[in-house]
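# step 3/5: fold
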Amino acid sequence: MAEARPDDPLGRGATARLLAEHGVHPRKEWGQHFLVDPNIVRRIVAVSGVGPGDRVLEIGAGAG
């Protein structure tokens, strides 16, 4: 798998910027955790079998 880059749109930095832009402040005590490892995101997509044009529904309170 590809190594994570600081500017990756699926990474920790991009997630932090998106949340800050919308005034969202996650709290661990509320169980708010975000998947920010782009390699894991890509692996989930790869094994799921979804492709371009497929609709995917995220279940959870993540950043979406």
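# step 4/5: annotate
The two ends are 23 Å apart (CA to CA).
# step 5/5: archive (pending)
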